[in-house]
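Sharing a chain and its predicted structure for anyone who wants a worked example. Both blocks are below, sequence first, tokens second.
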Amino acid sequence: MQSRRRAASTGLALVTAMGLLTVGAPAAATPVGAAPDNTTLTAAVTGKLLAAAGSARAATTPRTRVTVERSAAGWAFGTAVALAPPTADAHPTGAVFVARAEPDGWRVAFDGEADFAPLAAASPLLTSREKTLFNTAPAPLYAGGDYRTGMALPFAVGQTWTLSGGPHGWGGSETPYSSVDLAGGDQTVRAARAGAAYTMCQGWIRVIHDRGYATDYYHLWNNISVNGASVGQGAFLGYTGTDVTCGGAASGRHVHFGLRQNNTYVPIAGHDIGKWAFANGASAYQGGARHGSAWTGAGGAIHNYGALGLTQGVVDANGGGTLTRRAGPGTGYAALGSLADGATVTISCSANGTTHTGRYGTTALWDRLSDGSWVSDAYLWTGVNGPVNGWC
């Protein structure tokens, strides 16, 4: 139930450009078939980066850093970052890009954009694994009522850390509240889900996942240096820290963990990560997360239960206690036992039955579990307002 209810390369080149660059006319590209012209490429990528950052930020002309990690005749692939000022309530923004030289200029696409997948598919610079991964995006998943991520929390499963900052913006107090701060444990930051990892700058790693999602990890100490490396869920990314090489501010060791989808930061509220459903508070850094009926707010302990499968749910008995399993989709069927609040169940299919009201609203949907018993969807958190594994 959802709230309603709610790297291999061809000819490697490494070029880093830093400075004050403004948005201008499209840069002329190198003739197709020639080696990339780094000056015009940097101008094209920077112009797009500043435009994507918004007119207010572009007016301040932030410093930018464009890094070409891979290049070949007429092609380039790398990262672009708009550095933030070294102040509170500020964080850098950036993108993984692929570019192709065309007669009228460089064609540039950022990760998560509609143009990124076809351009990446045509590029000789990307691995087959990257092309397959990028081809799954974008899709308006959460906007369509699907909040499933398949992610764990960004630390070891089984550990308990501190939710040092509840939902807030990637840059701090701005919306959407896409991010949370996590601290403690063994201080080791790990990938929330499998994907391709990229070093955006010192202290900042981005992992691009399937289903259009990506996750950002900032303030890291001793982070890995990667250029499209394949990482599994739980892979080491770095240690919690206070690094602000690319801007912003940090007080006390933590990881600033942000959720992205389709080339933008998206609300973390409503999404399940580590079998916790996050929720906003009255203002930035407040709020918290719920596992079953248990709630933890900013400053509280948060346990990593691991990833919730895309056909699974977490029992929310709406106040503790247990949830009765039935022989069919309704209270008129025999009771077959019960499930504890917070338990994880696997759903085989769904059907309509008797109507019930849970934490997130009223529904007649019932879910058939993998053991053949049935439970009301009113008492499950699945991330979807409807069936997660088809109809029975």
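Comments welcome. Confidence is low (pLDDT under 50) at residues 4-34, 55-59.
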